[in-house]
Write a structure and sequence with these properties.
alpha/beta, globular, 6-stranded mixed sheet, inorganic pyrophosphatase (n-terminal core), 314 residues, Diaminopimelate Epimerase, Chain A, domain 1
């Protein structure tokens, strides 16, 4: 029995689902989860999203219709695009009955997990699952899954994009995904605060090894001076990697925490394994795109991560 057949049988045999997304949710976890909820509804099942408190304004229209109301009684919990238990949405304290993901296990193996690590996004797994369950992708699901696929590939610019990624996108367009509207919304529209924040990040960019390593630091002071909010922080990790000659881009973002905490996003071309670097600090992800968190200030965080990148430099 294939993973997909086994997975489809699981959904047919269970009901009253609660779909769990990851902390600081992105378009992949939210688009995949919302699309799955919609499809399960078509199948006659009840499915709702756990109300992740960190959903940003960009994704609220897509997720709000599916958020579980207070007191929602569920029987089956499914985690979507969640790499490990430590990444589960804040506020959720229950167990997980099934994991759907494209990230390999980072530590303790997840039980009852379907993981397609060769896929660029979890949305591709969910797309195949919906087709198995319902026979087709409808227009609303196509929009949600295109959001998942396009955001996890940086609008098909990241190194995780391959021929199958474009084939999946083509199937979603054939199913009715609104390409012009979604691309404008997700990739070609910025608030003035976001533009100002990008200017500050670029002005303070640090480059090493003849521009092969580039470090961007986003401080709380920069957020305040630009007027940026959490809604303005989508895909900041792509900026440092745009420097000509870049092979490893480190983005450090200071979080509003006491004691101090910084989030790190590391993007590489594969010469340095990003997952190996982030694993040193308790994080993980993919070989070319990984993340972690360090309990220190932004300057110390940047130097500690860069030192490991330098250590692993061929």
């Amino acid at each position: 029995m294939s993973d997909l057949t086994r997975c489809a049988d699981f959904f047919r045999e269970h009901d009253r689902f609660l779909i769990i997304t990851h902390r600081r949710p992105d378009g992949d976890t939210l688009g995949s989860a919302a699309g799955l909820c919609h499809a399960l509804g078509r199948l006659g099942k009840t499915a709702r999203l756990f109300p992740n408190p960190e959903i940003t304004e960009l994704y609220q229209p897509m997720t709000e219709p599916w958020l579980a109301p207070e007191g929602y009684a569920y029987d089956t919990a499914v985690a979507v695009d969640v790499a490990d238990a430590g990444m589960i949405s804040a506020g959720y304290t229950g167990g997980i009955d099934l994991w759907l993901d494209h990230h390999p296990d980072q530590g303790e193996p997840r039980q009852n997990a379907v993981v397609w690590a060769e896929k660029a996004s979890c949305g591709e797994l969910v797309m195949e699952l919906i087709e198995q369950l319902c026979g087709n992708i409808d227009r609303e699901e196509a929009d949600m899954l295109y959001t998942a696929l396009s955001t996890d590939t940086g609008c098909f610019l990241y190194d995780n994009t391959h021929a199958d990624t474009h084939r999946a996108a083509a199937r979603l367009l054939e199913a009715g995904a609104d390409l012009p509207r979604l691309n404008k919304l997700l990739f070609r529209s910025k608030t003035r605060a976001r533009v100002l924040l990008e200017g500050m990040i670029c002005a303070s960019l640090r480059s090493y090894r003849e521009n092969s390593i580039n470090v961007a630091v986003v401080t709380l002071d920069m957020m305040e001076r630009s007027g940026a909010t959490e809604d303005d922080c989508n895909d900041l990790a792509s900026l440092a990697g745009q420097v000509h000659g870049n092979r490893a881009a480190i983005t450090v973002r200071e979080l509003r925490c006491d004691p101090p905490l910084c989030k790190v996003s590391l993007r590489t071309d594969g010469m340095v394994n990003a997952a190996s670097v982030c694993a040193r600090f308790g994080g993980g992800g993919h070989a070319m795109a990984s993340g972690c968190e360090l309990a220190c200030g932004p300057e110390e965080t940047a130097e500690r991560v860069r030192s490991v990148v330098e250590e692993l430099w061929p």
